[in-house]
Amino acid sequence: MLVTVLYRMEGEPAVEGQTHPFTDVDASRYYGDAITWAANSGVVNGMTDTRFAPEAAVTREQMVTILYRYAKLKDADVTAKGDLESFPDHDQVKPYARGPYTRGSGSPQASHRLRTHSHRQGRQIFSLLFPPKN
Description:
mainly alpha
């Protein structure tokens, strides 16, 4: 779902002629073009080189990585770093997500954890992409 939202935010660019790398993604499904676009744009790498798991829930760690890569695609400034080591569960962050997590980790409160493997719901992803205006 997150990849589809980003793809639609981009205006659903054409993917004809682009490589469709994942054997478990049905190109005719609503997310087919979005995943093809995201893979070819460097926003996603998949679970493996040939597997995406389009029906799987997105973990926080995956979401942070996807949004970081999307921000880079949009030429956003992603140079600011937080102190990942100051989180009590920093050692649970997988290697692929360590860089993106340091860019958005900030400073934890005493009880805050990264919760890398918790799953994100659609409403949480939406609120991150479109925060309320005050």
